[in-house]
Design goal:
This protein has six helices and two strands; from the N terminus they run αββααααα. The protein is mainly α. A hairpin with a 2-residue loop joins β1 and β2. α2 packs antiparallel against α3, α2 crosses α5 and α3 packs across α5.
Length: about 160
Amino acid sequence: MFARSQQRSADTERSSILKFPTLYNATNDGLQSPTEKITLRQYYNQELLPTFREEQSPRSLTEDRCALNHWERITGDPDIRAVNTETLIGFRDGLTAAGRSPHTVNKIWRELKSIFECAVEDGLIDKAPKISRRMKSTLVKAPKKRQREMITALEAERLWKV
């Protein structure tokens, strides 16, 4: 069992080297893991944006950039491999302190989470960060949206008569 996990780790490392050759350092002993800082925006711009430009709408790209702007402003733009639960808690608290609603906080997190999940698929990080097991897709528990009441036919007639 241990040998399988080592093999999987070696395969992931090899895959990462093939996908991100500019991030790995060549030495006499072979290739070493990246030593320089790789930020979320750097990964997004170099690896995801070329493909996303063809696949996504301009509005979606704008939302990605906006989420990355919030991330950089609040977290100080840490290395993508160093992001942990404490980083997310600080990010969440920074957004709520800035007056963002729970729905907005969760929307921004969904944008960033998709970038983290791409980094997992590409082998850059082992797993996408989260605050807890129960809050995988949200950072804040948002109140339920208020349901609008239907109007009656009589009320609709009164509205149209005015």
